[in-house]
């Protein structure tokens, strides 16, 4: 994954945990894990709204490896929780740094007595998960402190973290943590996005993604698009750490240079344009991952892909200190020399391996270029395209027109306006209508066109203008069916928000749509504070417990359950969101499935068998953990559900008695749908 998004700097970082502190070379760290199986995650990686505050060390999919203190210090806290880091240990070091070790299977007992201490607090607080336990226990560099596990979130791994002052996670690679790696990162693509009505990319206002090809030791994009106006950029890249993982990169630099020639690798006046280094975050800024990553395109798994913004939406709130973005990362080509310019992206991983991608663009002086729509064989069509700050009306006809089409625009409390479209190609016309926050309300747009033969054609659209202030917040509605609310300070910039019936999604069998799916806009807009959406359902809808708000992931092509906060008075559901997207109310009619009982039916096991378990999966709103009931010979077993593995398990405290036993498992999902009871009869001998 990626670590630093730079535009004018290069950072060499290393990862092996040998030195830590302000002067890394003066402080030798002990590697925190018994084995060196590689990394599965880096500092600063995408985690939805937040970013990853440490590094994850692989443990080959198993638990129980020894975990060591990286340096002399004092254990000041244990944390025993079902979620989050699970079992975690915190060491305060004399240099002001704190090291954190998460997802441990168990703490060290023989020399430190930590498990005895945990049991004491479990009894005192009458819970298996007593939370934080504060103590002062000195440890030496390399001393055994615990064993790797998979407690809390995730499958087996060790989460290792370094903090300054106890509350500011910092990049371990900048403080002596090193990792042997000779493979440079991979640069997959570059996105160019024109900004504003007077900006163009290949004769259009739409952002485009250009895929790279690897040639002669670097990534190249051979296509040379024509550009005009203001542009900003997004890069897709990752670092291949081992064969299994795509991790974030350490550093990205974007340069823009004048070329003046056809050869891609020749340029002059290379100018730093954007730089960001994933050096440290605080828990007050960690929720700003959307300023770093593009929410619309970045995904953590299946597929893993990272799209880094090479621009700064909120300079005063960017989560990393060493960000540089000339003009906010927006390139105004009207101030550049016409002709070829080279975009150079340099990316480094934590070991300092460098990868380069290059692309040329041609800056043109024309404010508008011909549109390249395929010609119509017959008839005509027209459309209104929403570009956040302006609308573009496009009209195309198969036959010549008597004159250029016009659009009559009306709005309550304002005088009518006439927008004359401009020829953009053979029988192709377009026009721009800027939106104004001073003119909220519903626009009515009436297009009229007169062909040289045949009847005139007309089309009418209505477009709500809903300005939302970043300072004051506000609410946008789609009738009584849907609404979206931003609290004051939730937005980084003023926006025009909207809600429309969604067009691009799929229906999942067993999860029928209730009403419409809604496209909440602007899609992917990052938020400083969570917003709220509300969607209505029919008053006579049966079994409202089955209803929930789901998010449509257009990358993975599937629905994800969000929440089901139900207001029976307004017959609506609500959920918090971290960005606008496509959401809908679905009905979950799918029953969870119980399988893979252990011991399996008909089996014979020994008296030393230690674990009883079952797999419980659900495709809708998810398994309702309180509903799970596992019994052995009609006696309830106090097991635990692991959602990462879809597994409910019980550890047998004493050997099972010889003879025949019956295991029964029952469960339901959050929609109230019951699973078919599963039973296993087995023998112990």
UniProtKB/TrEMBL annotation:
Give the stretches traversing the membrane: none
Matching InterPro entries, A to Z? Cell_wall_metabolism_enzyme, Dup_hybrid_motif, Ig-like_fold, M23ase_b-sheet_dom
Q: Cross-referenced Pfam families, in alphabetical order?
A: Peptidase_M23
**Leader sequence residues:** 1-25
Q: Which keywords does the record carry?
A: Signal
A molecular function (GO) term? metalloendopeptidase activity
Q: Which residues form the M23ase beta-sheet core domain?
A: 51-108
Quote the protein name from its UniProt record: Peptidoglycan DD-metalloendopeptidase family protein
